[in-house]
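ZP: hey, is the flavin-adenine dinucleotide complex queued? I don't see it on the tracker
AM: it wasn't, my bad. submitting now with these inputs:
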Amino acid sequence: MPASYHQFEAVIVGAGGAGLMAALNLQGRDVAVLSKLHPVRSHTGAAQGGIGAALGNMEEDHWEWHMFDTVKGSDYLADQDAVEILAREAIETVLELEHRGLPFSRTPDGKIAQRPFGGHTREYGKAAVRRACYAADRTGHMILQTLYQQCIRNQVKFFNEYLVLELLVEGGRVAGVVALSVADGSLHVFHAKAVLFATGGCGRIYQITSNAHALTGDGMAVAWRAGVPLEDMEFFQFHPTGIYKMGILITEGARGEGGKLFNGRGERFMEKYAPTLLDLAPRDIISRAIYRELRQGHGIEGKWYVHLDLRHLGRAVIETKLPDITDFVRTYLGIDPVEAPIPVQPTAHYAMGGIPTDVWGRVVFDEKNKVLPGFYAAGECACVSVHGANRLGTNSLVDILVFGRRAGRDMARFVAENDFPPLPRQPEESALRWLSRLREGGNGGAARRVSVGELRDTLQGEMMDKASVFRDGKLLTEVGEKLQELKERYQEATIQDRGRVFNTDLVEAIELGFLLDVAHTVAVGALTRQESRGAHSREDFPQRDDKNWLKHSLAYRTPSGGIELKYKPVTITRFQPQERKY
Ligand SMILES: Cc1cc2nc3c(=O)[nH]c(=O)nc-3n(C[C@H](O)[C@H](O)[C@H](O)COP(=O)(O)OP(=O)(O)OC[C@H]3O[C@@H](n4cnc5c(N)ncnc54)[C@H](O)[C@@H]3O)c2cc1C
């Protein structure tokens, strides 16, 4: 089947919070939004706990405090010019959401309600502050619905269930994308002046994760294959409270409302690890504390979980402020959190790294931040970098909206000032070859054919066992070698379903290729970084090493498909690196 051709001034890939916010800021231009899922199924809709902004509705608060907390939370790896924008623009962003119709939870006098979240403090670390704005524990759901409604109202053009496979680059400029329509298996070339990737995270590289099945790092891998490096991929956040064995998230808002963690000896173990903030310390610190307790045999009945106890909050608070997670716990565990503590373990949650950008969402591809004209990235797939080595809760929703909006605005300028670039010759050629190889199977013949599911299970198990909360050189070397082997076996991977209509077998095979590439950048970045910072904790290099490692990593693809690392400096403006105590 020949490919169909489309032309739009701007193409946005991804219809989560970042993509939709960008689309709304491109009003008046010719824009298409491509999404492999229906927009309201994007992972933004799963965000629970809140969006951080120093509104000061409940108590004194300032954007400078928010900025400080974010920089300290990042273990000083975040770029402070970008963090300043995040903290300042968070305030107008939340008010914009309110004006666009988002039903926030309210204080008795009608203001947007706010609750405490991990690592958010007043007066530069003195005590927890109420900064997270929320709509019960469905904040992301409300954001996504609100933005999608506004897009429909503004007649944004959507191509739903279009899976983007490749980025087109011609003459040093981005010229569009190639996508597969999942509904009928047809191939589409989108010719554009500018392309934004807003494709979300890659939590599915791990076995236990809070991330939806679709979070397979597609945009990151596609950009990387096109020659763009991935920044700081070794930093992957584990959220302390996933449901035991399943990884489904129990929001930090549960601890924000007063929930407490206990080990198998009935101890409030966070007293040992973060005496000031306790259960509201940042996520990297609590996840490590839980792992330490579990390794010492202090899990509940010696098993690999601890307890999150909400019972003292009472039924009214639990059911009105945390209704969704209450439902999850009742449905998936058969436990009522009003009456029993919840078994939790750390779960892979958030990629701090991603496609490097400047503060206008423009993708930059070298150590001097040179811009690749026409290419933009925003949201979890991007690295601007506001989260550095560890993200604070509620800061991703701010990030996707603040930088989604900036990217949209700058794209509007760019497409007004520039003509269409030429398309490469036969732009669909390599995607066609790739798809037919997956459909027909590899070169090795039937005897060597490999199942996609089996490769994915091995990948996720290896990453979980050897590259998660604690790491060391030996295990990371093993996982790197294993990934190399899996990438080779992937060349022989084959699928059962040869049909064209909704071929989910084919989609999963494509996604596995993305997962393997992204996981490889995580493993190699982690092996090379010989220090412990934020979420990256090396048992063989337990100290933070600012002298040698206060720098961002850039993982490039080598011509043979391997990884080469380069580095670029961190932007430091207001806050010099300090010891990180909570
Ligand atoms: C369970 C959970 C709870 C969370 N709670 C919070 C919270 O309370 N506060 C907070 O700040 N953060 C939270 N986060 C993190 C935050 O929700 C995400 O980081 C953020 O929503 C990501 O938004 P996004 O727009 O970048 O991507 P997403 O919302 O993930 O959207 C990605 C989009 O890209 C599309 N896409 C992907 N690949 C392709 C492809 N190949 N072709 C075409 N389209 C593609 C998808 O269809 C989708 O539309 C939570 C995350 C999870 C998993």
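AM: back. The first helix runs from residue 17 to 24.
ZP: great, adding it to the tracker
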